[in-house]
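Re: your question from the hallway

Yes, I did run it. Sequences:
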Amino acid sequence: MADLDSTVAAKDYGLGTPQTVPASPVKGSDQLDFGMRHRLGRIFAQDGRTVMLAFDHGYFQGPTRGLERVDLSVVPLAPWADALMATRGIMRTVVPAASDNALVLRASGGPSVLKELSDERVAMDVTDAVRIDAAAVAVQVFIGGEHETQSVHNMTQLVDAGLAVGIPVVGVTAVGRELTRDARYLGLATRIIAELGAQIVKTYYCDENFAHVTAACPVPVIMAGGKKLPVLDALTMAWRAVDQGASGVDMGRNIFQRQHPAAMIQAVRSIVHDGVDPDEAAEIYADLSGGASD
Ligand code: R5P
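Structure:
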């Protein structure tokens, strides 16, 4: 028979202890709504950082090197990524729906590499992001580009749509060939993107004053990888970016174009989440790849 007296006595109403919820580890997100914070919590780990694996390049480049067969080259890397960034076409056809990664959907597009890249439009409805259970949608913003205003408008449209359903927006600084990737430009572009409502900003690393770029951006900055570099250079760039305030990385070619992509993503992960320095991370790559240098 149940011991009713002791059950009553065991109840604890926590009288005198104010109700609290932990502060969000994601920069600038404490005043967002529940769904938005829940999604950001899927992208960023408890340390406030993320390893995002970008393989959305096909939306303007087609089957670029390393992405000819995403099912073979990228899907096996998912266990080491916090988030996967891809188009809805690749999500639906190749990314396993059972995947527990946060999904970041490419939401802008239009021109191919054969045309003016800044002439993008919003390329999906936010209701489809809800159907896919996206943790965020991503849009290029071409500050200083030929279609700057259109691309900013694409982003603000998505920010409004995302706020309506609780989906964050990743604003991606798209640097045209004619623009310099220095702290002055990247600071301008990242700040504009955050001011106009994006909850995450993705941008390139710059050698001088990258800390100024991250400090002046009120939301998390994640570092874009860019063209494939030698292993140690890519790892050093990731380490410096995180050391100077980036909340992680969103890398593609520097991972999937490697001879040993699984080794590389684990090396990157050790930098982002374990505080490993670039030389140690390069050793991790060498160990896991059987001594490969590329
Ligand atoms: C480019 O527009 C896409 O957003 C890519 O996902 C991004 O550039 C990251 O890939 P990567 O590290 O290869 O530059």
